[in-house]
Design brief:
The protein is built from 7 helices and 9 strands. The protein is of the alpha/beta class and 215 residues long. The chain has 2 domains: 89 residues, 3-Layer(aba) Sandwich (Rossmann fold), CATH 3.40.50; 92 residues, Rossmann fold (3-Layer(aba) Sandwich), CATH 3.40.50.150. The chain binds S-adenosylmethionine (SAM).
Length: 215
């Protein structure tokens, strides 16, 4: 998707994907999936998601990346959080003063390697499925090539029948095609959601890096 598309969506407040609550499937499954060895979470294409706050309030080191400055400014204003502003490579950096939370404003594809290398878990809600099919492989390739071997991915998709505009419907077969050469893919749970007047399904997957085969 062109960046103008997203800037326009934020400018016109056309952000139907945004939820004022923490993602229920995240809340339901986090504790059963991850123990205290998980210290850091990367939230790509984070919008102004309340999930950032929920994760940081658990003491996790949270890093988000988001294209839209409107989204990032809104996040800090709406959650009544102070941010120290700076620069990080090509990105604007917003470092929360009171919680272990940093949001980089800029293009995911320009993000420096350090964020990938230091993350224990990637939480992807509405990120892979925000991208058109032609960009999804390049997005996934970033994780395959830059995440540390033990990092895991908690991935949420939406399965639906209206392909006009993002969020796109991404089926399990495509998730497997994109990731399964390097990650095991486990479909953990799903729940129905009304989407554009029809019934859709939110799906959550856990992806673990496959161990290299030793001879
Ligand atoms: C479907 S929304 C999901 C937002 C968030 N994850 C949530 O759960 O509310 C996709 C977000 O990705 C952002 N985005 C799109 N392309 C991006 C890119 N190349 N780099 C960073 N953010 C991007 C958009 O501005 C939008 O906020």
């Amino acid at each position: 998707m062109e960046s103008d598309f997203w800037h326009e969506r934020w400018a016109n407040n056309q952000i139907g994907f945004h939820q004022d609550v923490t993602t229920p499937l995240l809340e339901r499954h986090w504790d059963e999936l991850f123990d205290s060895s998980v210290k850091s979470v990367f939230v790509p294409l984070c919008g102004k998601s309340r999930d950032l706050l929920w994760l940081a309030e658990r003491g996790l080191e949270v890093v988000g990346v988001e294209l839209s400055q409107t989204a990032v400014e809104s996040f800090f204003a709406e959650q009544k959080l102070d941010a120290r502003r700076g620069l990080h490579g090509e990105m604007r950096e917003y470092r929360c003063a009171s919680l272990p939370l940093t949001v980089y404003q800029g293009d995911f594809f320009a993000l420096s390697n350090d964020v990938f290398v230091t993350s224990d878990v990637v939480f992807d809600r509405g990120a892979l499925i925000a991208l058109p099919r032609i960009m999804r492989r390049a997005y996934v390739e970033k994780f395959k090539s830059k995440l540390k071997p033990e990092a895991r991915i908690l991935l949420m998709t939406l399965e639906h029948s209206d392909e006009k505009s993002p969020p796109f419907s991404v089926q399990e077969s495509e998730i497997r095609d994109l990731y399964e050469d390097e990650f095991s893919v486990k479909r953990i749970d799903e729940e129905p959601e009304e989407f554009r007047g029809q019934l859709a399904t939110n799906v959550i997957y856990l992806l673990n890096r496959k161990q290299p085969v030793t001879l």
